[in-house]
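The aim of this short unit is practical: by the end, you should be able to scan a pair of folded records and say something sensible about each. We start with the first protein, listed as its amino acid sequence and then its structure tokens.
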Amino acid sequence: MKPLLAKELGSFLQRFENFQDAELRNIEVISPTTLKVTMAAQDSAREFDWVSIELEFNNVEDAKLLESSKLSFVDMSEGITLIHENNKFAFGITNGYNIANIQDAQCYIVSENVKYQESNF
């Protein structure tokens, strides 16, 4: 997995069009402070072919997760928000603009760092 740096967030999200209409595949609890989210999305760097993206959140401080049985029903039309604020990364299935706003989402994670990995659809 590669670290996702704060300065790369904009280009990363743009590459996957903020994961709008993506497919939320899995949320895995690896440990009490490590979570992994797997999504399928279209990659503009690959002529909009579908790819799988794993996001690994380390040193998780706060989270609200969904049950695996409900993931296929999540509306991803607005995509995700992934921001860096106050030396923390915040991920949410919402169109948010700060950590407090993201924490109102149906699913969110606040962590110290994020890594990602791309793989075939």
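Turning to the second protein, read its sequence before its tokens, just as you did above.
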Amino acid sequence: MSFFIPFTTEGQMNVSDIKKECQSEGWIPLLYYEFEDKKVIPIFKNSDICRKFLKRNLPKDHLTGAVELTPDDQKQLDESEYEFKYFDHPRKISDWVKFNVYIYNFTTNPELTTA
């Protein structure tokens, strides 16, 4: 089973920048949050839930979207300092967590869906 993880440019890039730079070069600014001294990457079963989560939690002027996590990338992230939290619905958590961005280099060029 594949999962989707959120990305955001924090308002610093537009869609063509994402496609030209990030997607073609294999790196994506992944969204994670900090909670109780942990760094957590939210994961979702589909891109629609991921995009709705982003709309509820980030400013409207930030370009956001979902990227499919391949098994190789999931294994690589499992070995990092980040934890995964599975969300089966797009709940709002921005009132009690701090969001941040992690630049991740994918093992292959990732498929992106913007919100």
